[in-house]
Amino acid sequence: MNNPSRAAVDARKARFKPGCRVELVNMDDPHTNLKPGDRGNVQMVDSIGTVHIQWDNGSTLGAAYGVDAIRLLAPPVGKAVTEQILAIRGTGTTNMFDANAVLRIALDSGFLELVDFIITDSKGYSNFILTGGRDGGDE
After folding, report:
1. Cα–Cα distances in Å, from 92 out to 105, 112, 114, 133?
2. pLDDT of 79 over the 90 cut
3. Element (H or E) spanning 51, and its range?
4. CATH of region 6-72
5. What is the phi/psi pair of residue 52, to 5°?
């Protein structure tokens, strides 16, 4: 396998930031006890694109660029944000997929945690609405 380009490594570093949660999709290592569905926290991405992970089962095996597959999990949404989303949904005044309308209602209601969530993580907001807050993400 050839080493990835600098741009590919930089993109991987931007995507898999330290502390984010990931789930194993596939690992091409016959000597590991890791299995699809195992989860862990990203520690770092090195200069050849390997994502170093502290797995929940104690393993520290990295996911090699171009060989192993991991998916990013959505960060957990806090209790305050969840309650604020449910409060706005309960009014029935807007389609919850209309993030701009939800943002206006959140501002008017003083739901500052929800305002911050929509502004800083619009993809996370959409994922929450689509999945009801269950983990989601992409490979």
Report:
1. 11, 20, 17, 19
2. no
3. strand 51-55
4. 2.30.30.40
5. -85, 130
User: 94: part of which helix (H) or strand (E)?
Assistant: none
Domain borders along the chain are 6-72, 79-131
SS3 100: helix
Strand, helix or coil at 136?
A: coil
Closest CA to 8 of 64, 83, 87, 92: 64
Which of these, 83, 79, 128, lies nearest to 106 by C-alpha position?
83
Give the residue among 128, 27, 116, 35 at the shortest CA–CA distance from 77.
128
| pLDDT tens-digit map of 84-103 | 999 999 999 999 999 999 99
